[in-house]
């Protein structure tokens, strides 16, 4: 063998834990996590989401406790999603603009409790419509883009009025970010952020979420005329460019893990904060493998969350947020 070969041994820096820590290019912290929470009617009420082991729908009083726990753990923001009562769902989703809907009650309660946590609210009509779509439908079941925009703007203003810090439009209608930004400015909500679900794909991985908010069984058809085709990446860049031009403060890619190439492309193309949503199906898939003893719980969770950060995300929306933050507080990096 040639003397001195190999001259570079990359294993040297990996040989000890202290050295691996010192050379880590990416360090995950609780500040890299956003925790999605499902709201239910009732008081001191919690119910498991059957398709998402470890995830519960919580009544407003328990949402406040969860938000407090997030703040205590150093998780900067929670994302709220309502499981609207069946009687409040309608063809036009008008419950979305009700100042006393579950979203507004939960945000107000978190604000009133003085908890220092960001409140992210989803803008889309699907938890409020009896057909499960994110927009208004014509008689022949086509999505009415421009008519929907007016409702989304009113929904966003309603959320801002009741405590939302970050409006997150997930509906994928054309033009929504601009219309929402204009409405927020007009109503005096200059400091409310918009985090747009810019590259949101028509994905099979949303199944458990639709179960959690009760929209899945109602859904007529699919969402392929507004959510993106998983085959496309260039189009994601066009969506992001538009949303930035229309006034988004940050953008999101969704789902997460199967779309890290999109995260990377957005990150290398635009100077904008980027987030990813590790969605319900990704969580369920991992959780079920963990519960079956097939995937190591802590290591699997931390590896995937770190991958999001390595790809360029400022933070990740994840149903693992609380578990991961707890683990980090124990000094465990998985
Ligand atoms: C609503 C919305 C969805 C998700 C977030 N906001 C579902 C959908 O578009 O059908 C999915 C989140 C998840 O799967 O965890 N428009």
From TrEMBL:
The keyword NAD does not apply. Keywords: Lyase, Porphyrin biosynthesis. InterPro entries: ALAD (IPR001731), ALAD_AS (IPR030656). One of its GO terms (molecular function) is porphobilinogen synthase activity. It holds the Pfam family ALAD. Signal peptide: none annotated. It is an enzyme of class 4 (lyase). It catalyses: 2 5-aminolevulinate = porphobilinogen + 2 H2O + H(+). Its EC number is 4.2.1.24. The keyword Lyase applies. PROSITE patterns: D_ALA_DEHYDRATASE. Homooctamer. PANTHER family: DELTA-AMINOLEVULINIC ACID DEHYDRATASE (PTHR11458). This is Delta-aminolevulinic acid dehydratase. It comes from Pacificimonas pallii.
